[in-house]
Design a protein that fits this description.
The chain is of the alpha+beta class. It folds into two domains: 5-88, Phosphorylase Kinase, domain 1 (2-Layer Sandwich), CATH 3.30.200; 92-318, Transferase(Phosphotransferase), domain 1 (Orthogonal Bundle). Helix content is 28%, strand content 16%. The chain has helices at residues 48-58, 94-100, 112-131, 192-195, 205-217, 239-250, 265-268, 282-285, 291-297, 312-318, and strands spanning 5-13, 17-24, 30-37, 71-76, 81-88, 92-93, 134-135, 144-146, 157-159, 166-167. The strands form three sheets. It has a five-stranded antiparallel β-sheet with strand order 1-2-3-5-4, covered by helices on one side. The protein has a three-stranded antiparallel β-sheet with strand order 6-8-9. It has a two-stranded antiparallel ribbon with strand order 7-10. Helix 3 (112-131) runs antiparallel to helix 5 (205-217). The protein is globular.
């Protein structure tokens, strides 16, 4: 490891990466995050080298709501190559922020103005990414970090974790646009097209997860675990159960409302028995949201047809504060 950085301890881990809190001795002991991976052990769609390359390309524009690559290097001990990327260290993510705003009675106490700003900043981040041909493919609360404490007026949202992102035109020659990997996303934030193996999806894949997050931001109650509206004991680990949870909550789609599945054989052979009494309106899913959210935003984020979903640019326009 570069002598410039002094590790202070582990800060997190995943299947393929370890993250450490460290100080940068050449930058006034600034606290940073060191993300280490063994690139040769990664399996598609995970690609740490691509993540470093992608973040390096963002340095030209320095988008306000995307994490920043501070440094990177590869160490080779003769057996393995280890990649380290250095990023700003963030103390809090959206999942933790929502837990902090859970009142004694379970009520969601996140201020509406704060929820609105989070939506705008997330839309702005995705507007930048999608405009540069990038699909993040893993938007979820734990990948949305905040500067500072997350509650101050100056605190900004930062999107992190780009190791499964897709970049046009073919993800560095590894993934054609019409044959994208569908084993992406996390848990109950995965979009319906992934669950049916539709592999020519586009940037609006990310917008489904934004709709899930919007329901959490504007929920009346804040669950202890801060989960998506389609989360239950089965849907978090089963695609079939997640399909059932989505259709039960929003209603079962048809090939008229979801034309992309007209040629999907598995959809044609499924029989959906949905109890109408269990369907929930957008007013029920996000009771603290505005009428605009209920009628123009959520119905066009949480719709099975990707082609009917809002783009990040359209969401950004709808989330503009009213003077």
């Amino acid at each position: 490891m570069s002598a410039r950085y002094i590790k202070q301890g582990p800060a997190g881990s995943s299947i393929y990466a370890d993250v450490f809190r460290a100080v940068d001795t050449l930058s006034d002991n600034r606290v940073v995050a060191l993300k280490t991976t063994l690139p040769d052990e990664l399996r598609p769609p995970h690609d740490a080298l691509k993540e470093a390359t992608l973040l390096r390309s963002f340095l030209v524009d320095r988008p306000a709501h995307i994490t920043e690559l501070l440094d990177d290097w590869i160490e080779d001990d003769g057996l393995d190559q280890q990649l380290t990327i250095v990023l700003p260290f963030y103390e809090i993510d959206l999942q933790t922020l929502l837990k902090h705003h859970r009142g004694p009675d379970g009520a969601n106490t996140l201020p509406i103005a704060r929820a609105d700003r989070i939506m705008r900043e997330l839309a702005d981040a995705l507007y930048f990414l999608h405009g540069h041909g990038v699909i993040h493919r893993d938007i979820k609360p734990t990948n949305l970090m905040f500067t500072g404490t997350g509650t101050a007026a100056t605190s900004q949202l930062k999107v992190i974790d780009f190791d499964i992102a897709w970049l046009a035109p073919d993800n560095y020659g590894k993934e054609p646009a019409d044959q994208k990997i569908t084993d992406v996303g996390s848990g109950t934030y995965r979009a319906p097209e992934l669950l049916f193996g539709i592999d020519d999806y586009g940037a609006r894949l990310d917008m489904w997860a934004v709709g899930c997050i919007a329901c959490q931001l504007y929920a009346e109650e804040s669950p202890v675990s801060a989960v998506s509206p389609f989360h239950n004991d089965n849907s978090k680990s089963s695609d079939i159960a997640l399909i059932g949870a989505i259709f039960e909550t929003l209603g079962a789609p048809t090939t008229e409302t979801w034309p992309e599945v007209a040629a999907v054989e598995s959809f044609q052979h499924m029989q959906f028995r949905v109890d109408p009494a269990r369907k929930r309106s957008f007013e029920q899913l996000a009771p603290r949201a505005t009428a605009v959210m209920h009628t123009q935003v959520l119905p066009r984020l949480l719709c099975c047809s990707e082609s009917a979903r809002l783009t990040a640019a359209e969401l950004l326009e709808l989330m503009e504060p009213v003077e």
